[in-house]
Amino acid sequence: MKKLILASAVLFAMTACDDSSSSSTNGYTCNVSRTDNTVTLYETHTRGTYKQTQTVYGDHSIFTTDITYSSSAEAAEDCAEEKEEAREWRDGSYQVECTSNSVHVTQRDDSNRSSMDETAREFQYICDEGYIRAQNGTLDDYD
Fold first, then answer.
1. How far apart are CA 26 and CA 47, in angstroms?
2. Does residue 141 lie within any of the structural domains?
3. How far apart are CA 133 and CA 85, in angstroms?
4. What whole-number distance in Å separates Cα of residue 128 and Cα of residue 30?
5. Domain assignment of residue 55, yes or no
6. How many domains does the chain have?
7. 129 by DSSP, 3-state: which?
8. Residue 121 resides in a domain
9. What are the angstrom distances between the C-alpha of 124 and each of 20, 81, 121?
10. What domain range is 60 assigned to?
11. Structural domain includes residue 142
12. Per residue in 95-127, pLDDT tens?
């Protein structure tokens, strides 16, 4: 899960926002939403979209990540990296599906409902940082 959250920040040079609405800053929008058993981060950027959801099922969570790129080359590069990551998870709890411009990752995690607060804070931080970077004109800086 931490890798996927970090992937958002690195891939889009974005970062989490508030629970109500999202406003656009230089083409960047971000929204964090929550229900009883899910928390979702949704970002848009001129380079694509990023959505990650934690859904809690009793004693474990399923994290799903959907990334859509405007560039098929970027999608292919990320797909290769995610598939390499999936090979290291020998138990099959990390699965990757790719299309020409998108990457879909599903990961089982031992986190539970109490971890949703931490996930929501991490997602919020991603949005807050993304808006700062968008305002400063550094959203596309990678290093």
1. 12
2. no
3. 28
4. 9
5. yes
6. 1
7. helix
8. yes
9. 12, 25, 5
10. 2-136
11. no
12. 999 999 999 999 999 887 778 999 999 999 999
